[in-house]
Write a structure and sequence with these properties.
The complex is a heterodimer. Chain A is built from no helices and eleven strands. By secondary structure, chain A is mainly beta. Chain B has no helices and eleven strands. Chain B is globular, with a radius of gyration of 13 Å. Classes of the chains: A mainly beta, B mainly beta.
């Protein structure tokens, strides 16, 4: 059974850097075809893909946010970390990590999400 | 980025009646392998999105057969044959063909 759980601060101040950790089980990021991505969803709005890292360390970023994002993986700990710099109140959202089956349909299995509020 | 456009954005439905949601993409989602890279997700209140349909028309494991997906290329439809109270939530289409993966605006289904 694939499970993912996001962890990190619930409140950050403007201009600070956000660091979120996704801890997963039920799969390995060393397995060919596996990816883990970060997706955010502002309150009442649609989800937005942020970043994705694949088993072969291929990394993909949202073009509009690329300069602010870094995604890394720690396969020994079954974790994926996302950092986002220069946080702003408009970045307030629920942040999800998700498993992706790259060689299949590309479908996502989502974590429960974590709400991050950006406020001074 | 591939733009996904859903309609309607709000869908009030009487239990037992059918419902239909449209999703259009700005580029074809039909891969050279013959599969359409289009998913439908349902986000129930207070929950994470859950996969309903992938490949445009294949129900995910455990999804009731009252849900069906159709379409190809740039035009897709999600149909619910008989809406039940547990179907309330926001439905999203999403394309995993190209990064960044993009979502439609969402269609909020509510019970009349």
């Amino acid at each position: 059974q694939i499970t993912l759980k996001e962890s990190g601060p619930t409140l950050v101040k403007p201009t600070q850097t956000l660091t979120l950790t996704c801890t997963f089980s039920g799969f390995s990021l060393t397995t060919s075809g596996v990816g883990v991505g970060w997706i955010r969803q502002p309150p009442g709005k649609a989800p937005e893909s942020l970043a994705l890292i694949y088993w072969n360390d291929d990394k993909r970023y949202s073009p509009s946010l690329k300069s602010r994002l870094t995604i890394t993986k720690d396969t020994s700990r079954n974790q994926v970390v996302l950092t986002m710099t220069n946080m702003d109140p408009v970045d307030t959202a629920t942040y999800y990590c998700a498993h992706q089956d790259y060689y299949g349909s590309g479908s996502l299995t989502w974590g429960q999400g974590t709400l991050v509020t950006v406020s001074s | 980025d591939i733009v996904m456009t859903q309609s309607p954005l709000s869908l009030p439905v009487t239990p037992g009646e059918p419902a239909s949601i449209s999703c259009r993409s700005s580029q074809s989602l039909l891969h050279s392998n013959g599969f359409n890279y289009l998913h439908w997700y349902l986000q129930k209140p207070g929950q994470s999105p859950q996969l309903l349909i992938h490949w445009g028309s294949t129900r995910a494991s455990g999804v009731p057969d009252r849900f069906s997906g159709s379409g190809s290329g740039t035009d897709f439809t999600l149909k619910i044959s008989r809406v039940e109270a547990e179907d309330v939530g926001v439905y999203y289409c999403m394309q995993p063909l190209e990064t960044p993966h993009t979502f439609g605006q969402g269609t909020k289904l509510e019970i009349k």
